[in-house]
Amino acid sequence: MPEIDSRALAALVRPGARIALADGTGTPQAAFAALGDVARERGGVRLVLGWMPAVPEGLDLAAFADARTVMPGWGLRAGVAGGLVRSVPARLSAVPALVAGPLRPDLLVVAAVPGPDGLSLGSEVSWVRAAVEAGVPIAAVVDDALPRAAAGPPLPEARTTVIGRVRRGPAVVPVAPEPSPEHRRIGELVAGLLPDDARVQWAPGQLGQAVVRAILERGRPVHADSGLLGDPVVDLDEAGLLASTPVATYLVGTPRLYDWADAQGRAGRPVVHGVEVTHDQARLAADPPLVAVNTAVEIDADGQVNVEGTASALVGGIGGHPDYAAAATRSGRGLSVVALASTHRGRPTMVERLSRPVTTASHDVDVVVTEHGTADLRGLDRDERRAALARLWV
């Protein structure tokens, strides 16, 4: 028996419809092939995508009349570069308004996990809740292996059509490589900036690993409040250094993380919330103090940040970088930190002119950290800021 009922899916799609595909590690991959088949059969079907941490194998992007993403991620780089996907420049906090307005879908396709009150989202919520609350019909692939990690109500039964059942679970994203000496030094410097009772947002990858490692070595509890939540949060929990239940909108990691989020098969651990919650600047700026630790592809002499890519290649999307940075500058005892190695593949990460448009404005950056030290830019004028930054690229 096929995993997906293609006829049930086709009955929900009219010619020219716009379909939104839930994103993250729990994207409903089992439905990808059927979506392409339905799009070719109906004609003129448009597609809205979000953050894809892996290449969406089996999804025929060429079958759609228009495909665009609000946050490309690594998985959609080739699609964007090949002209099959348009990348919409939007901070993550603005995406709910897009999917409830100009990009409002006619159908939302999700993966869902059974729970005590019905079907619920699993390893992420992201912007999907906004489409649900806008009244969009839902096609659900039931995945019994997803973690029960989503806060909030179950999917509305009256608007949800089950189109298949699988047991796949979220995509496995390996833990980042061992941090380099430069990243370890940066992590130590960042940990030294944390106030008591800090709420920390960190970027994934080697830098995030290094920051969490330094927090573990420091031995002082923190609150985890980050767009992406990976395996390092389990390290914090096992060390007794989580001061509260973490808050995130995506889980991205290995089975160790997903098992932790599922609370070993009990009632689940409600750690993932909609973007309307996670990226709300008023919530983020409130106590406990928020220290947002983000990185950059490059930074210019004024402290403007680019995270989208180089001149020749898309690396990522805007995402929550400007949301967390702006909120952290408003947080009492908080800090907006941009942390990056001074070189990448032999080239300086400080440039005279950014390769792409500005992601995060210089006035939303409080502190810049490289392996050479820390530049506290608060209260400095433009000339003083340039001088302080220059000392980090020696």
- What's the N-to-C terminus distance? 63 Å
Total DSSP helices:
13
If classified by CATH, what would the architecture of the largest domain be?
3-Layer(aba) Sandwich
Summing up helix and strand content along with how strands pair, one would put the structural category as: alpha/beta
Total count of domains: 2
Say which CATH homologous superfamily of the largest domain is assigned: Glutaconate Coenzyme A-transferase
Radius of gyration equals 21 Å
Let me know the largest β-sheet.
8 strands, mixed
Stated plainly, the CATH topology of the largest domain is called: Glutaconate Coenzyme A-transferase
> Roughly what percent helix?
25-40%
User: In terms of quaternary structure, what is this?
Assistant: single chain
GO molecular function, one term: hydrolase activity
Keywords: Hydrolase
Protein name: Acetyl-CoA hydrolase/transferase C-terminal domain-containing protein
Pfam family, one: AcetylCoA_hyd_C
